[in-house]
Amino acid sequence: MSSRIALSGVRHTFWVRGDHDKQLREFVALDGLDLEVGAGEFLTVVGPSGCGKSTVLDLIAGLATPRAGRLTIDGRPISGPGLDRSVVFQQYTLLPWRTASANVEFALEAKGGLSKSQRREVAREYLELVGLAEFANRYPHELSGGMKQRVAIARSLSYQPEVLLMDEPFGALDAQTRERLQEELLAIWARTGTTVVFITHDIEEAVFLGQRVAVMSARPGRIRQVVDVDLDRSSAQESDLRATPEFARYRHEIWSLLREQHTTTHSKELAHA
Ligand SMILES: Nc1ncnc2c1ncn2[C@@H]1O[C@H](COP(=O)(O)OP(=O)(O)O)[C@@H](O)[C@H]1O
Ligand SMILES: [Mg+2]
User: Could you tell me the pTM of the whole model?
Assistant: First the structure.
């Protein structure tokens, strides 16, 4: 596997105020984190809430700088955001004064190279892909939460970034929409060869999407284990992949890894009590 993105010995901290003394203390969110993402790979990162998943994504996106360690893309240090990487955040991040279509066109303007009518056409194509063709002229306040998130996904996909970074993008969607978008995302990934790093706290989502699943542990956040998921997803749209014994086996393996660390942390806390 040739790696596009590499993180080694990454440490990140935040300054937080103590509950009692209000003193500033350094909170270690990530420490000794190593991770490699291959070119064209679909990697999912799963871990409990607060373990540092969003922090990892922000670092790869170049939105934060690590306190220590190395982060590279194609061997070059990551020193800030770039058009080679696109992020879909947990919360909707649309421009409120632009319609759904104009929000997608905005990303295409930033990339450049297309005429106004071409941008409109591409926006239409991607809004259709996320099932929002009829809502192209609506403003964000006229859309439901799930619809806003689908516009954000359309926007990220429309300019075909080499690396797509997704932070629990389907978390706020109803189950049916989520499953449909998961399938669409796999189809788009298979077609475009985009490298995808997809964060989730949902084990099934991690197994369904990831060629590999990186399981995180908390305090400090690091990659505990990377599980290779060898499932035939080519027929995911026709057959119920989630109902197969292989799927259940992977789900259980990752569940056990997450469960184990929860138990370990818990018994350590009891020992200190
Ligand atoms: N800006 C911040 N200031 C202080 N603490 C933060 C900040 N951002 C995140 N944290 C803390 O760092 C840890 C990891 O956060 P985050 O990466 O958002 O976790 P996750 O995405 O896995 O839920 C959490 O304990 C969180 O409270
Ligand atoms: Mg998060």
Answer: 0.89
Please confirm whether the linkage preceding 81 is cis (ω < 30° from 0).
Answer: no
Report CA(52)–ligand 1 centroid distance (Å). Answer: 6
In a domain, 260, yes or no: no
Phi, psi of 41, deg, nearest 5: -80, 150
Q: Do 153 and 177 belong together in one domain?
A: no
- Measure 201 CA to ligand 2 centroid, in angstroms: 9
Q: Can you name the residues that pair with 45 across neighbouring β-strands? A: 199, 214
Q: Which ligand neighbours the alpha carbon of 15 most closely?
A: 1
Regarding whether 241 and 181 lie in a shared domain, the answer is yes
Residue 68 Cα to ligand 2 midpoint, Å, equals 21
Residue ranges making up the domain that contains 150: 87-160
Same domain, 148 and 197: no
> Which-ligand-closest: CA of 168?
2
Which pLDDT tens digit goes with each residue over 84-95?
898 888 777 899
Q: What are the DSSP calls for 171-224, one per residue? A: TTS-HHHHHHHHHHHHHHHHHH--EEEEEES-HHHHHHH-SEEEEEETTTBEEE
Q: What is the pLDDT of residue 272?
A: 54
Do 146 and 35 share a structural domain?
no
Q: Rounded to a whole number, what is the distance in angstroms from the first to the last CA of the chain? A: 45
